[in-house]
Amino acid sequence: MQFPDQLKITLASQSVAVDRPPANPLSRNTETSIEELKRWSGSDNSGVAVSYFFRQYALFVSAQFHLLTYQNGYFKCAGKDLVFNRVHNYGFNLLETHVSSVHFKTIDANERFSAFHYILHEQTAQVIDEFRSHIKISPLILWDNILGSLIWFYANLEQRDPRRTAADLDWLMDAANWSPMRKSHWDRLLGDTSLGQAVSRPLRKTCCLYKELSHFDTCTFCPQSN
Predict the structure, then answer these.
(1) Measured between alpha carbons, how far is 220 from 65 in angstroms, rounded to an integer?
(2) Dist CA 173 CA 176 (whole Å)
(3) For the chain, how many structural domains are there in total?
(4) Predicted TM-score of the model (pTM)
(5) Given this model, what pLDDT does residue 226 score?
(6) Angle at the Cα of 60 (from 38 to 177), degrees rounded to 5?
(7) Which residues in the chain land under pLDDT 70?
(8) Taking a C-beta distance cutoff of 8 angstroms, is the pair 223, 206 a contact?
(9) Residue 217 lies in a domain
C-alpha cells in the first residue's frame, strides 16, 4: 500500500517526515549526536541538550498515538531506525523525525494496546536508556517531556471521543501495562488530575530545562520558573 500523500502532509505538521531524506541529520552514534545536540540547542550542558531532544521527540510519540486513533496504524520500528533532522523553523533550531513508510503497520482494534506497549518501550524507553548510558539525567525529566505532549493530545481527543480517551487512559494508568518498568509514568505524572486541569495549570514537578536555553522562553507551567 502506498502511503497517502495527505497523511504525509498531516505528519509534517507534527514534525514527522515520511520517505524524505534528511538534509542535516544527527549522527547515529549516540556520543556524537549528543555533541551535535549541544551545538544545535546552544547549550554546553549534555543534560540540557538531551532534554531538548526529548521535547522534540515527544512530537513523534504523539503522532504515533494520533495515527493509532485515526488511521488504525503506526510506525513499528525500533528507535535506531529513526533519523533526526536539524531544521530551522519559526526562528528556532528544531528537530524533525524521519521515518520510512515501509515501517507503517495497520492493526486490528484488539492490537491497539500492544501497539501502545511497543511505542512506550521500543521507541521510548530504549531511546531514553541509550542516551542515559552516556550522560547523567533523570529519566523522569525525559518521560515528562514526552508524556506532556501526549497529555495535550488526549485533552483534545476527550472533547471528541471521551469513551476512547477513557479506555486509553485506563490502560496508561495501569502499572502492569508498563512492565518491565515498575510503574506507570502516566499515573506518576497525571495522578488524579483531569486532562482539562493538566493542560491549564502546572502539573509536572520536573523541569524540561528549556529555561536554560537562551533562545527559548521559560515554559508557562515551569515548576522551577525562578
Answers:
(1) 25
(2) 9
(3) 1
(4) 0.93
(5) 46
(6) 110
(7) 1, 207-226
(8) yes
(9) no
200 in a domain, yes or no? yes
Tens digit of each residue's pLDDT (9 = 90 or more) over 34-57: 999 999 999 999 999 999 999 999
Q: Is residue 225 included in any domain, yes or no?
A: no
Bond into 180 cis (ω within 30): yes
Does residue 224 form part of some domain? no
Question: Could you tell me if 67 and 100 are in contact, meaning their C-beta atoms sit under 8 angstroms apart?
Answer: no
Outline where the chain has alpha helix (H). 5-12, 30-41, 46-70, 112-120, 126-132, 139-160, 162-173, 185-190, 195-198
In degrees and rounded to multiples of 5, residue 75 shows phi and psi of -85, 110
Whether the CB-CB separation of 69 and 106 falls below 8 Å is answered with no
Q: Which residues of 29-67 are buried (b: 16+ CB within 10 A; e: fewer)?
A: ebeebbebbbebbebebbbbbbbbbbbbbbbbbbbbbbb
Alpha-carbon span 165 to 219, nearest angstrom: 26
Closest CA to 209 of 190, 225, 198: 225
> Residue 72's domain spans which residues?
5-212
Q: How far apart are CA 154 and CA 164, in angstroms?
A: 10
Residue matched to cell numbers 483531569: 194
The three cell numbers locating residue 119: 511505542
Phi-psi region for residue 90, left (φ > 0), alpha (ψ -120 to 50) or beta?
left
